[in-house]
Amino acid sequence: MNNERTLQPTVGSPVTDVSGYTVFSHGDEGAAHVAAHRLLDDGQIALGHAQLGTWLDGRTGSGSDWTHLQFHMAIFELGVGDWDAAYDRFQTEILPVAATTEDALTDAPGLLWRLAI
């Protein structure tokens, strides 16, 4: 396992997760997304929480890519035991998007299901 992964832009061929699913990887948001998947796949939950949390801090965004990064951050929050933060993120960053657009139709129920178990 690589503990030195950082949020770096990706270039070249499509990036896949451990299951072979192609993940979005363009630009800064794409780099953060790829890193989140790799850290989750490697079981590096605390490192992912720290890195993605630092990356998100002070940034704003919108759309499906941004909302999906919020989903990943909530998964890291659950992984480190911060259920309140994950629920707050669901309420403030994911649910409003799911209620008004199609941008979080899988992330919202997926996170809500995880919060329920």
Round the Cα radius of gyration to an integer and report it. Answer: 13 Å
Q: Encode the helix/strand succession as letters.
A: EEHHHHH
Number of strands: 2
**Count of spatially separate domains:** 1
Structural class: mainly alpha
* Proportion of residues in β-strands: under 5%
Mean pLDDT metric: 85
What kind of sheet is the major sheet? 2 strands, antiparallel
As a percent range, the share of helical residues equals 55-70%
**Principal-axes shape call:** globular
How do the strands line up in the largest sheet? 1-2
Compute the number of helices.
5
* N→C terminal distance: 28 Å
List low-confidence stretches.
1-5
Q: How does this structure look, described?
A:
By secondary structure, this protein is mainly alpha-helical. The protein has one domain (15-116). Helix content is 62%, strand content 3%. Helix 1 (27-41) packs antiparallel against helix 2 and helix 3 (63-79) runs parallel beside helix 5. The protein is globular.
Describe this structure in a few short sentences.
With 117 residues, the protein is mainly alpha-helical.
Give the tags.
mainly alpha
Write the layout of secondary structure elements.
Elements: E1 15-16, E2 22-23, H1 27-41, H2 45-56, H3 63-79, H4 83-100, H5 107-116
Antiparallel strand pairs: 1-2
